[in-house]
Amino acid sequence: MKSILIICIIILNGCGNKSLDKTTTDVLPKENFAEFFDQFKSDSIFQIERVKFPWKIPSDGKELVINKG
């Protein structure tokens, strides 16, 4: 009975979600929103650096794609 319990624990432990470990290391450091917003609204280069392109926008049954620049 003990061996079945040990095998179950090993199997369940091995089924953990490994992608959670990756997402915690990809988190950006916190920044002050007021400072970010002031820079974003006044600096076009900063805007381009912070917006993820391409944008895919549905329009009249077609997909409009906006690329960087």
End-to-end CA span? 65 Å
**Secondary structure category:** alpha+beta
Shape: elongated
Range of helix content:
40-55%
Radius of gyration (CA) equals: 23 Å
Q: What's the count of strands?
A: 2
Task: Going across the biggest sheet, name each strand in turn.
Answer: 1-2
Uncertain ranges: none
- Counting H and I runs of at least 4 residues, what is the number of helices? 4
Q: The biggest beta sheet, please?
A: 2 strands, antiparallel
Q: Hey, roughly how much beta strand do the residues contain?
A: 5-15%
Mean pLDDT: 78
Notes on the protein architecture:
- It is a single chain.
- 0% of the residues are buried.
- The chain contains four helices and two strands.
- By secondary structure, it is an alpha+beta fold.
- It is elongated, with a radius of gyration of 23 Å.
- It has a domain at 32-69.
- A hairpin with a 2-residue loop joins strand 1 and strand 2.
Question: What is the strand and helix layout of this fold?
Answer:
Blueprint: H1 2-14, H2 19-25, H3 33-42, H4 44-50, E1 55-59, E2 62-66
Helix pairs in contact: 3-4
Core attributes:
69 residues, alpha+beta, 2 strands, 14% strand
